[in-house]
Amino acid sequence: MIKRLSLLLVALISLEVAAKEYKYSPTPENLKRRKEFADSKFGIFIHWGIYSMMGDGEWVMTNQNIKHKRYSQLASGFYPSKFNAKEWIEIIKNSGAKYLCFTSRHHDGFSMFHSDFTEYNIVDATPFKRDVLKELAEECNKQEIKLHLYYSHIDWGRDDFPVGGTGQNSGRDKSKENWSSYYSFMNNQLTELLTNYGEIGAIWFDGVWDKPNFDWQLEEQYRLIHSIQPQCLIANNHHKEIREGEDFQNFERDLPGQNTAGYSEGQQVSKLPLESCQTMNNTWGYNIVDDNYKSTKEIIHFLLRNVGMGANLLLNVGPGPDGSFPEEAATRLKEIGEWLSKYGESVYGTTAGIIPPQDWGITAMKDNTMYVHILNLNNNSLHLPIKGYKVKNAISLINGKSVETKQDKNGVTLYFDEIPTEIDHIIKVELKPI
Ligand code: GLC
Q1: Stretch 263-280: mean pLDDT, rounded?
Q2: Where residue 418 falls among pLDDT bands split at 50, 70, 90?
Q3: Which residues make beta-bridge pairs with 281?
Q4: What is the Å distance from ligand 1's center to 327 Cα?
Q5: What is the pLDDT of residues 164-192, one digit of tens each?
Q6: Distance 283 CA to ligand 1 centre (A)
Q7: Which residues in 262-289 are b (16+ Cβ under 10 Å) and which e?
Q8: Is this model's pTM higher than 0.70 or not?
Q9: What is the DSSP letter of 200?
């Protein structure tokens, strides 16, 4: 008896150790997707939900202390008459972005897709009755845009969600909290998302920071995702170090390694592909009074500052309640697209520069080609400390002219006719390792 008990104990302990030692090995198709993702450099984030009707961002329910019972009534008035998946994806395609990350379910808990596990979804709870995600997935497929899905771990409406730091005044019945019920609900929905909408490029989680010390059972959830679609990348906006099972690392409103916005304190830059998400104005979800748009030039500079670090930019749009993109956003996307259609070779498929980012700009590499992006220089010459390379030639991508260079033992100096004043003066430098 004692022997049996001790055997059982050993078995239990080894199970526990196995669970602790779980090591994720990405499949070959997953590694291929990571490379494709890292090469793509530019994606569009879309924050859209029933909150868009209130014109006060995606946090409106919590920020205005609205009870879930009242808030959920918005659904029966949601009829985005101008929503047109083909037009959205065309705008995204023409912006030069290679992927779309769509909010399938935000913290308000409303599913922007048809779900069998809650009626609180766009098909069953609104007069619109259309599965917008299905329409988007089909268009993404046609127009070759990868589809990523944002999925919130937080739910401000469900009684079974164990309440965290946010959404405390939404009127939930705390006595009904039930993590295992909520966890299976999420896993059922993730299974739907990964089964009914074709190939998913990534699942982008958000919300763990709401209960930072809680065991969200992420590894098991990540395993589920990879078992359904092994190539599907997983990212988690938890603002902390990368965890086992994640395929790329994201940074909120900051370049990798920086923490100007205050979200990235616990984050070291990992070796995984990187992505930084940013708003065009100040808010993610539609905000009717937020006209504080960054200029096209500022956005291109932020994209390039990411590119210099080998990272992607995920740029946000918050469509209005009618389903159309704000005019300011559409204009900027068009202008970015015009710029990328001319200079995309210096962006797509590049890796981090051999020279770390500088105040004057950044560099990016493609094999032995170095793209020098001059963003801010008050001089008509620039020294590049590239020891170990010889310059074969250097040309300006802006005017096609060759650029005068002078090699010395510490690197090379580029000379320009005038101080560069374009959005970005790009010099393509062919190098030969010595
Ligand atoms: C934050 C916010 C959320 C937004 C996200 C985008 O975590 O809670 O509203 O979706 O950032 O990065």
Answers
A1: 94
A2: confident
A3: none
A4: 23
A5: 999 999 999 999 999 999 999 999 999 99
A6: 9
A7: eebeebebeebbbbbbbbbbebbbbbee
A8: yes
A9: -
What residues flank ligand 1, with Cβ below 6 Å?
A: 47, 58-59, 206, 237, 252, 277, 284
For residue 22, what pLDDT band results from cuts at 50, 70 and 90? confident
Q: Structure tokens of 329?
A: 């956003």
Cβ–Cβ under 8 Å, residues 420 and 377? yes
CA atoms within 13 A on the CB side of 338: 8
- Sorted by where each starts, the structural domains of the chain and their CATH numbers stand as 2-351 (3.20.20.80), 353-433 (2.60.40.1180)
Q: Are 125 and 115 in contact (CB under 8 A)?
A: no
What residue's CA is closest to ligand 1, atom 1? 206
What tens digit of pLDDT does each residue of 116-162 get? 999 999 999 999 999 999 999 999 999 999 999 999 999 999 999 99
pLDDT at 14 over 70: no
Query: What are the angstrom distances between the C-alpha of 91 and each of 48, 202, 329?
Result: 16, 21, 10
Are the C-beta atoms of residues 265 and 259 closer than 8 Å to each other? yes
Residue from 105, 240, 252 whose mutation best tests the ligand 1 pocket (most atoms within 8 A of CB): 252
Residue whose CA is closest, atom 4 of ligand 1? 284
Q: Residue 79: count other Cβ atoms within 10 Å of its Cβ.
A: 15
**pLDDT tens digits, residue range 31-47?**
999 999 999 999 999 99
Probe ligand 1: pick from 106, 148, 284, 315, max atoms within 8 Å of CB? 284
Does an H or E element contain 369, and which?
strand 369-374
